[in-house]
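Subject: Protein record for review, amino acid sequence with backbone structure tokens
Why sent: The fold of this protein is of interest and is recorded here as tokens.
Notation: Tokens come from a learned vocabulary of local backbone shapes, not from coordinates.
Attached in line: The record itself begins immediately under this heading.
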Amino acid sequence: MRSALTERSARVAAAVKLHRHVGRRRAGLFLAEGPNLVEAALRRGLVRDLYVTEDAARRHDELLAGQLAPVHVVTERAAKALSDTVTPSGLIAVCQIPATSLNDVLAGPPGLITVAVDISEPGNAGTLIRIADAMGAAAVILAGHSVDPFNGKCLRASTGSIFSIPVVVAPDALQVLTLLRTAGLQVLATAVDGEISLDDADPMLARPTAWLFGPEAQGLPDEVAAQADRRLRIPMAGGAESLNVAAAAAICMYQSARALQLGQRT
């Protein structure tokens, strides 16, 4: 019979494997670190185990009080192994990956969706999730070769929004577009040479919309961009040639959310 110390060490070792995408995929679990992410995960009922140092337990006693998930007190060394930040918080949760499918999202029906295609930078992906949540989107779809949304950096960049809005991973971007259209959404993309200015797009944006966003350096894959119903350009008065994906998404999603709200009032 294993001692409590050996059992705890084995649990920590298993949790450390969740730093890797393959470990998360196999276990259906991920790590959330820090009070903000952990609190958001607890509200969603996703936490399976909590790991906390003695110092962090004192600092976050109200958060930990009365939790149904098992709380394991660990050493600073173990907390560092569980962390992927420069300064570990000492509070880490093992969480269940939410089971959300694209069919679930489209059953809404949704009014606004963000589709990120081939977004490999986790900070950008997390920021897109945060923007979509702020603008009232129904979901974020990470299509093509996009980053795992439960990567630690992506989670932190979302600032907890990943627990507030459905996030769907869908490797086949073209299939995603087919399903979006079947659900009644128009598919829009941004382009420097877009035929319509965003300033003139309000009537169009009053319809249910899926926005496509690609990485700044390469943009959307040609075969995906070609499937957009319309390509819109963001008017820029200054000298910058382009915006990064998060800035472009914030502008486009805000305009869509505004147009949808105005349409509901009339």
Observations:
- The mean pLDDT is 92.
- Residues 245-265 form the longest helix (21 residues).
